[in-house]
Request: fold
Amino acid sequence: MLVPTEPTGPIEPVGPTDPHRHRHRYQVRFHERWSHLNNPHVRTLAWLLDAPDLLDPRAEEWQGRVASLEPVDEMTRAWLDELDSLPAALQASLEVHPHKRLGRYAEQLMAFYLQHRRWLVAHGVQVRAGKNQTIGEFDFLLRQGDALVHWEFATKLYLLESGGHGRQADYYVGPNLADTLGAKIRKIMDQQLMLSQHPAALAHLPQPVNLAQALIKGWLFYHGETPLPAQPQGISHGHCKGFWCALQEVRQLSARHYAVLPRLGWLAPAKLPRPAALSHEELTRQLQRHFQENDAPVLIALLEEGGQDFLLESDRGFIVPDDWRSRAEVRIRHAG
Reply:
């Protein structure tokens, strides 16, 4: 499904060390537009609406099956500003179905926005054949004119296992090794977007689906510095990027301030009060304690001056166990 391309250069075998590398990253643009937002849920919603797509909607291989949001206009910006000042309605919508899963959290935020725009017909519609067999679920059913549109929505983070040089989507592996970018794309395109064609789906739809598309946001993380490897065709060239490095490489990081990001804080670039920041020494101790008991990768933010009382994310990266790469290679061999 993804056409291989040749790498443009080698991947450096070290973690990020250049303090100016973040100047070319998405965080700069995000902070220019949204640093005034304080509520973490509103900031995440702003990221969902503002961030570049992970898949390029214009790429021929998707055959029009990738959706994209229009740029945030002034009315939506004013709405987000108002939400930041009065977030009670958004908070209430999140409390209807409390969750800890990042994907479900993002889905609830997107549903809130689609409802605000009056596009949403239904959200999370399960399709069953009989009482006990679940066929699938429609993430979003939307009204576009007289047409009914199915959107499959995903927010994903993947690390490039550098032996693949980015030429195949299966070399992009989930931090916990649960899946790969290639496997996720195949599942969405070959299964989830076909749901409306299943005979059992008709009973759950107000009318036939005219179009099924995937809306995918996320971050891809690379080991080493520029030049970045060539990426699979169909991936947006402007996607959000970060780094990854093994625990033993953390000593090479050179920022003054750091933070460990909680799972529901993995999407929008961080804005944190100064007392929440960690020094390099404090970060190292916290990571060492974590990996003594847990092999789950940790997402950290590198922070820079943002204002008198807060710091802003300048870069981000996953810290992984020292044996992560060898385990990722095993996962890649079994991708499918």
Q: What stands out?
A: The chain has one domain: 21-333.
